[in-house]
Amino acid sequence: MIESAGLSRAQLRRLLRQRRRALSISQQRQAARRLYRQLAQHPLFRRSRHIALYLPNDGEIDPQLLLREAQRRGKTTYLPVLNAWPATRMVFQRIRPGERLTLNRFRIREPRPNHARQRKVWALSLLLMPLVGFDPHGGRLGMGGGFYDRSLAYRARRKNCQKPTLLGLAHECQKVDRLELASWDVPLQATVTDRAWYGEEDRRTTAPHSLRCQSKR
Predict the structure, then answer these.
(1) Which of 28, 140, 189, 212 has its CA 20 to 30 A from that of 17?
(2) Number of domains in the chain
(3) Nearest CA to 129 among 52, 25, 42?
(4) Residue 136 structural domain
(5) DSSP-derived secondary structure for 57-126
(6) pLDDT digits (tens, 9 = 90+) for 2-24
(7) What are the tens digits of pLDDT across the range 178-212?
(8) How far is CA 207 from CA 11, 43, 102, 182, in A?
(9) A single Gene Ontology molecular function, please (predicted)?
(10) Quick check: is 138 in a domain?
(11) Residue 129 domain-assigned?
(12) Is 3 part of a structural domain of the chain?
């Protein structure tokens, strides 16, 4: 675990990105299998019907085993899609097995934008989020673009709407003792690594969240 005292967010990002990039292909594959075992049989994953994930980039832990498992079980799965305009906006779009993907401006694979297949973030059941660093208290350090924080900013305004459940996914080596959160940072319910769970949504419980978020889709 990294001691964050005296390190800026930029310094932490640089250090933690170096750590996950340093993992070998074999270590990455092993971490992906362990992550799958941590989540695939958890009641939270089993009960969720609309699950958004991501495709790994820059050494991020790989959730594609979970993506395929969710699709095998008949769940509806989504990937983030960056808007061309406004450029700071991100949406979540349904993805089907074998669907062809394209590269966005960050060279990350995503579906071709199709508004009819997009779902409001508050209508998702579970959002599995990438991160650069995390602490055991729900803190998340992202890449700095703010895409997820902007997408989830409604949670600060709509206290009765805490969907979807937010789980960060990470390698154990990305753990920090404590992160200083900015006013716009959205805390996680838990972070799941290849080794353990950290946070209120631990491996034994599935604390219910409000279902009063309204959506027509």
Answers:
(1) 189
(2) 1
(3) 52
(4) 9-199
(5) -TTPPP-HHHHHHHHHTT-EEEEEEE-SSSTT-EEEEEE-TT---EE-TTS-EEPPP-GGGEE-GGG-SE
(6) 888 888 889 999 999 999 999 99
(7) 998 877 888 999 999 999 999 865 544 443 343 34
(8) 35, 10, 37, 26
(9) 5-formyltetrahydrofolate cyclo-ligase activity
(10) yes
(11) yes
(12) no
